[in-house]
Design goal:
By secondary structure, this protein is an alpha/beta fold. The chain is about 45% helix and about 10% strand. The chain has 22 helices and 15 strands. The strands form 5 sheets. The chain has a 7-stranded mixed β-sheet with strand order 3-11-8-2-7-5-6, sandwiched between helices. The chain has a two-stranded antiparallel ribbon with strand order 1-13. The radius of gyration is 26 Å and the shape is elongated.
Length: about 575
């Protein structure tokens, strides 16, 4: 092997160009990935390139500029990894928040599936950081002529870019420097993420005096049990109960006559840290920022005299989900005090549920079960006994392994079917007025179409990420005591719903709880239920109509095929 060229790696000019290329590499990719005008692509390439080139000339030792510009190096590396996963878009606010709310085990599972591109990014940008140390120690510096020439180039290019940018601002009302120019948009999103994290950390101060002033309105003094099962990453398209070609829900199919299956249900967020809090609160996409100043549905039930339980098979992550869970009379995170690598199947929730149900001293109970569902890695979410579809071994998250990935994902649905049926059977055995509601926080992409997207939480969602199951079961005793509620749930069964909007209000009205925060027009158990636009909560926490969130023609074609409302 010839090593004579290695010496060039340690020259100041080499690092100068490597730094510049590393900083503008995301812009080069974004030119091809973003669905924007040609003029916007030009602006997004020229404006940042000229700025970065100018910044690189501010010190004769580019190694020092590497560390002064480290935040942009971090952004660039992060951006390239996300482009590999999602195929488009810049680092979203939610992506930054996912970094602080995702536990190390989840992160490791994800990285294992995209190891090759991650290692490539680490090698390139890590190499720049290593070379920067040699640059700083090197006695040689960039020449004045070299710096002057590149600085002049940067000024000329900036002037040209400025002209294009002004023209674009005049001609295209949708164009915005804050939203469309990398890394301005990423820097703005980073600031928003910090602001939201600060707001979350102030949560307990903000809700110290908050009250729902809720009260119990049912006439009957019978025992009552309401169980809310929140799934993870479970998309309706792979549920046999929703028409999937594979019978992935055999146990629920056996009791489908006892179920209310809402076939036109969309979540308002494709991220867990926003979707679950909306499911557990009076807040939806239209007023999401109120989430930081209101308590959850658990408190509404407590104020009305219910004993409350929160049982989770997810790990704590210092998020609103944790804060809401702690409002319960009894809070259990199954993985507390277990090793970080412990893999606990969702059925471990069942005996804890049975313990809560067996407490005869407490006759009115509200129980939230937060499962781990279909979270990647799929094959880790179910025991060997549930390996119905094979092969289900996934060496890495690549298109060539899609069949294996779908098999593994479908096995997670088979297991979810088993767990939900176990929950229903346990509640049914109490012989009281009771209900079980199941829905998932969001769905998942599994290389389903030409976009070749994988996972969820992408800045631009797909129908695969937002179409979720929403199922209600009621006991015979409940049907006898509250026939009007049951009639209303049947009447509303074919209507389009936003799960984040209806869950809170449906649960309260089914349990006979009244508060100023409840709204019967959002309750599936009310004759007042009203069809409303299903806005999606975008990355900046703005409610956006479905036709403006970036869905493409194939998404809408699939919605037509499934008879889903597109508004």
């Amino acid at each position: 092997m010839n090593f004579k060229y290695i010496k060039y790696l340690f020259k100041q000019k080499t690092l100068f160009y490597l730094l510049f290329i590393g900083l503008v590499l995301p812009n080069l990719f974004l030119v091809f990935t973003e669905n924007v005008s040609i003029l916007t692509r030009i602006c997004n390439l020229l404006l940042p390139s000229s700025a970065f080139l100018f910044l690189c000339t501010l010190n004769k030792k580019p190694g020092k500029m590497v560390w002064w510009l480290f935040i942009f190096i971090f952004f660039a590396a992060f951006e390239l990894v996300l482009l590999r996963i999602f195929g488009n878009s810049v680092i979203a606010v939610d992506m930054f928040l996912n970094v602080v709310t995702t536990n190390p085990v989840e992160a490791t599972e994800l990285l294992d599936n995209i190891l090759a591109p991650v290692l490539a990014v680490i090698f390139f940008y890590g190499g720049i950081l290593v070379l920067s140390i040699f640059s700083i120690k090197n006695k040689k510096v960039l020449s004045h002529k070299f710096i002057s020439r590149n600085r002049m180039v940067s000024i000329v290019v900036f002037a040209i870019a400025a002209v294009f940018t002004v023209i674009n601002l005049i001609l295209d009302s949708r164009f915005s420097i804050v939203n469309d120019i990398y890394p301005v948009n990423v820097s703005y999103n980073f600031g928003l993420a910090i602001d939201r994290e600060i707001m979350a950390n102030k949560y307990f101060d903000n809700v110290e005096d908050f009250k729902f002033n809720s009260h119990y309105s049912h006439q009957a003094e019978d025992a009552e049990v309401y169980v809310f099962v929140i799934g993870e990453t479970s998309r309706a398209l792979n549920w046999g109960l929703y028409g999937y070609e594979r019978n992935t829900t055999p146990l629920l199919n056996e009791i489908k006559d006892e179920l209310y299956v809402y076939r036109d249900a969309l979540t308002q967020s494709n991220t867990t840290h926003k979707s679950v809090p909306m499911l557990l609160s009076a807040v939806d996409a239209s007023n999401f920022n109120d989430i930081y100043s209101q308590r959850s549905i658990i408190t509404a039930f407590k104020e009305a005299g219910y004993s409350t339980y929160f049982i989770s098979n997810q790990r704590r992550n210092h998020s609103l989900i944790d804060f809401f869970g702690e409002e319960a009379d009894q809070t259990i995170f199954i993985k507390d005090n277990l090793s970080d690598t412990a893999n606990v199947y969702d059925e471990k929730i069942i005996p804890l549920l049975q313990n809560a149900l067996s407490d005869t001293l407490k006759t009115k109970k509200f129980i939230v079960l937060h499962t781990y569902g279909s979270h990647c890695n799929y094959s880790d979410r179910y025991p060997d006994s549930m390996r119905r579809f094979q092969p289900d071994v996934v060496p890495s998250a690549e298109l060539k392994y899609r069949d294996n990935m779908v098999n593994a994902f479908d096995n997670t649905i088979v297991y979810t079917d088993y767990v939900v049926r176990k929950v229903i059977d346990a509640v049914k055995a109490t012989n009281v007025a009771a209900s079980v509601i199941y829905t998932s926080d969001h769905g998942e992409d599994i290389f389903d179409d030409e976009r070749k997207m994988f996972l969820h939480a992408s800045p631009i969602p797909t129908i695969y990420q937002i179409y979720v199951p929403f199922i209600v079961w009621t006991s015979e005793r409940y049907n006898d005591i509250h026939p009007e509620n049951c009639k209303n749930m049947i009447m509303n069964i074919d209507k389009p719903i936003a799960t984040s909007r209806v869950a809170f209000h449906t649960l309260l009205s089914m349990a006979g709880i009244v508060t100023d925060y409840s709204d019967d027009t959002n309750s599936l158990a009310s004759e007042s239920f009203t069809i409303k636009h299903r806005d999606y909560l975008n990355d900046h926490n703005d409610p956006v109509p479905l036709n403006e969130i970036g869905l493409i023609k194939s998404d809408f074609d699939l919605m037509d095929k499934l008879h889903l409302c597109k508004e």
